[in-house]
Amino acid sequence: MKPAAFDYLRPSSLEEALQQLAAGGDHAKVIAGGQSLGPMLNMRLAMPSALIDLNDLTELAYIREGGAFLSIGALTRHEQIAGSALVQARCPLLGQAAKTIGHYAIRQRGTIGGSLAHADPAAQFPLIAMTLGAEIEIACHGGSRRVPASAFFQSAMTTALAPDEIIRCVHFPTISVHEGTSFQLFNRRHGDYAIVAVAVTVALEGERVVRVRLGLSGVSAIPQSCDDMVRPLLGQVANAAWAAEVARAVRAAVAPEDDAGITAVYRKELTEKLVQQALERALSRAKG
Amino acid sequence: MSHVEKRAITLTVNGKNHELLVEPRKLLADALREDCRLTGTHVGCEHGVCGACTVLVDGKPVRSCLTYAIQMEGHEVSTIESVAIEGILSPLQQALHEAHGLQCGFCTPGIVMTFEAFLKINPAPSEEEIRDVLSGNLCRCTGYQNIVKAIQQAAAQIRRNADHVAA
Ligand SMILES: Cc1cc2nc3c(=O)[nH]c(=O)nc-3n(C[C@H](O)[C@H](O)[C@H](O)COP(=O)(O)OP(=O)(O)OC[C@H]3O[C@@H](n4cnc5c(N)ncnc54)[C@H](O)[C@@H]3O)c2cc1C
Ligand code: FES
Ligand code: FES
Q1: Domain check: are A150 and A130 in the same one?
Q2: Distance (Å) from the C-alpha of residue B167 to the closest C-alpha of chain A?
Q3: B-interface mutation test, from A6, A35, A55, A104, most B Cβ less than 10 A away
């Protein structure tokens, strides 16, 4: 398994990378961590004419707080996000999810921009971006635009990115100190892509649940926000019975498909179990 | 693209510069093995899953099957050949030897490189943390139990060595 021949360019600024990408037409591709593109090149599922290596653009590796957002540069590695005290304090859901991506060596190299652009339906960062309503900032030659996650992810491995565009950063709404969060996934082997994963935030007023953000992956081609399914159950007393009721409602509403080796009913069962677990965990954090 | 010229690159491996002529598509793993003649880095799956090819880039564990040699200009690559110094095994290698942490040895270089880096950052890992990191290295022989024991033993030795230096 060796990649087909490609040319190699190593820009030293985002502007230069954008120019090279525009000049390369549809056949050039940027490479960030290479942890998804590398396997595709080696298996010849991707055969770009040229690779434009973003790894020298260290100005795109940062985690910053500004207003109600935590902004993360596209070249920030999974491990930096998993280990960041700022992420832990202002957007803990993101840190919890980052720790579970693949394996230690994969996390050293993989980047958040690459993960969003790759848009694997089972990937962690797209799920967190959908759950929290993150905005993806995209640069093209001579401009930039901000796209909400709900418009960015279009189908499995398909996004709103045009061939001449590069993700510059992602803006995640920060989580208030009164909200509890939890990320839960199920896979068969530690470090594999999740079969089903759930991300939640829960806010309480006194004993009652006033706000829930709940996202699911593994039941559709792109991660799904389930906020509408939960809305009728807001205002109730936060306890295990409530968590179980929400989990049943979500299970009833999702419509996964059978695929090789994993049946739809199994995905539904995992959904119920993981939603319940995630809500219980988030509730205890919100109370704690 | 059918034909791409080879490029002259400088690959810094274990502190030594290698002047190579490679196509951009040359995997770092293949450049190490074929061009630098450092065959301690093993290649299993070539898609990032097995961990056998793990080397250090600027001190961090990286799959050498998912990086291309040309990307490594300006970076420091360390391979298993750099770990024992003048034939003296590192505490981790010694512990793997003593605790029977290897059988055929195919997976061992990747495990050693991963944990040489990890134990520097976390010299007192829990068993759970060790198993989390070890999940990135497949071993078809040992059943992992003795690898975990060896890593615990190595961590204890590294901590003792640090105390010794501090004292
Ligand atoms: C063994 C293994 C296990 C894994 N397990 C998981 C897992 O459990 N969960 C998970 O989420 N991921 C997993 N991954 C994938 C990993 O998280 C990748 O790092 C990630 O999917 C892609 O990020 P990257 O930086 O490596 O991107 P690359 O592989 O470099 O690129 C991926 C794609 O994104 C494009 N791209 C990269 N950066 C940008 C940018 N800034 N703007 C526009 N396009 C860009 C590339 O052109 C390419 O199409 C795993 C990978 C491996 C090898
Ligand atoms: S050969 Fe690189 S991870 Fe298997
Ligand atoms: S010792 Fe044989 S694969 Fe690990």
Answers
A1: yes
A2: 31
A3: A104
For residue A187 and ligand 1, the question of a CB distance below 6 A is answered with no
Residue B157 belongs to domain spanning: 91-166
CA B103–ligand 3 middle distance (angstroms): 5
Over range A179-201, report the average pLDDT: 96
Task: Report the CATH number at residue A68.
Answer: 3.30.465.10
Whether A117 maps to a domain, the answer reads yes
CATH for A203: 3.30.390.50
Does some domain include residue A34?
A: yes
Residues A185 and A226 both lie in one domain: yes
Residue where a domain stops, chosen among B82, B99, B117: B82
- Domain shared by B39 and B59, yes or no: yes
- Residue range(s) defining the domain that contains residue A24: 7-50
- A53 neighbourhood in chain B, CB within 8 Å: 71
Task: Name every chain A residue with its beta carbon within 8 A of the beta carbon of B2.
Answer: 5
Atom of ligand 3 nearest to the CA of B102: 1
- Residue A11 belongs to a domain: yes
In a domain, A55, yes or no: no
Residue finishing a domain among B32, B62, B82: B82
CB of B58 less than 8 A from some CB of A: no
**pLDDT, tens only, A226-256:** 999 999 999 999 999 999 999 999 999 999 9
pTM for the predicted model, two decimal places: 0.97
Separation of B123 CA from ligand 3 center, angstroms?
Answer: 24
Of B24, B68, B114, the CB nearest to A104: B114
pLDDT tens figures, B80-90: 999 999 999 99
Would you say the C-alpha torsion A155, B45, B58, A124 has a positive or negative sign? positive
SS3 sequence of chain A: CCCCCCEEECCCCHHHHHHHHHHCHHHEEEECCCCCHHHHHHCCCCCCCEEEECCCCHHHCCEEEECCEEEEECCCEHHHHHCCHHHHHHCHHHHHHHCCCCCHHHHHHCEHHHHHHHCCCCCHHHHHHHHHCCEEEEEECCEEEEEEHHHHEEECCEECCCCCCEEEEEEEECCCCCEEEEEEEECCCCCCCCCEEEEEEEEEECCEEEEEEEEEECCCCCCEECHHHHHHHCCCECCHHHHHHHHHHHHHHCCCCCECCECHHHHHHHHHHHHHHHHHHHHHHHHC
Q: How many domains does chain B have?
A: 2
| B1 within some domain | no
Both B42 and B103 in a single domain?
A: no
